[in-house]
Amino acid sequence: MVMGIAGVFFGLLVGWIIGTQQQPGVRSALAPAPAASQQAGPGAPPAAPPLDEARASAMKTTAQQNPNDAVTRVQLGNMYFDAERYSEAAQWYDQALRINPKDVNVSTDLGISYYYMNDADRALAQFEHSLQIDPKHAKTMLNIGIVRAFGKSDLKGATEMWQRVIDLAPGSDEARAARQALDGVRANHPDVAAPSGKGPGPS
Description:
Layout: H1 6-14, H2 53-65, H3 70-82, H4 86-99, H5 104-116, H6 120-133, H7 138-152, H8 155-168, H9 173-188
């Protein structure tokens, strides 16, 4: 069932299921998706960019010398994520989150890494933790919808979450992506499309 919705808007949504950090020097919320996950048309997708091992080694030394340095650990997570080494990215995001447990962006990046490690359930659990930190975090909600749709084949749950993004942040880029996602669902599976109007909100 989910394959029917994957064509038109999958590439757009995959572009959102990546890091959410907006601090200087780390990945922007609008960065492109990992190369291996992009829909680049016919043919094999390009390979992931290689990891700068020398830079990563130097940053690891910095992190080891500074046990409370969350920023360097986030940067390491981003580097490994961009190189599509998601297990290692998750380790660094997890360390950063232990230092700064209220960082919703890092929590969501950790969940995204779990998704790319083929563990949708763990990803969704981490996203729920993100919403405990910030119940209105639009990027987290959009990603929950993506994982429900493509990781769990749960279009009903996905459409409910995308409608929630629209209701809570109607003028945001996340809402724009959610609307396109809902349009794709309605075109292919009108029986599971979210109804118009207010969707579920945070308690």
